Amino acid sequence: WPADLKHLLPALAELCNRHEHLRLILAPHEPTQAHVKSLVSFLEDNNLSFELYSALKGQGDRGKTSPVASSTRAVIVDTIGVLAAAYRASDAVYVGGSFGRGVHNVMEPACFGLPVIFGPRHLNSYEALLMIQRGGAFPVEKGADVVKIAERLIKDESYLRQAGQSARAVVIENLGATGRTLEALSRRFSGVIGDLPG
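Above: the chain's sequence. Below: its structure in token form.
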């Protein structure tokens, strides 16, 4: 979202300048032509080489994604339905929405054992609060906070892995929540819901 990008993009430019090996996957909430174009402009303005995900997908064998060149600093996700693939290829994630109305889904990247960074408005997500308490998620107020947290995750691999495991633990501990909720509702409203199988 533009409100997130205002803080995030300058932080990413600074991090890329400091860390030659750093690679980015930029996935706009809505991969419209205008959103993709703004990311292209950002990367070009900062002399960061990039590829569009759709171009990589088109070059691969039998629909598989072709490898990213070692000189490529960023991939822009310009299509929908590939977020899981982006998470699989990541070490840490920034989830947007929290410089606006509220943070988006933090459980998806946590499933992959990734530390999660997001902005100040995250009270809409109970899972985000749990991840913060466990040390698997990091709220930020401004771009400088993103740089500080990312620097630690980049420089300390054991901290990166520990934070990712803490985020994933929240997912594991909450498995079966739907079943538990239905059981509780069934007990409370037995005349309406009735007994659940099993």
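Residues 111 and 172 are 8 Å apart (CA to CA).
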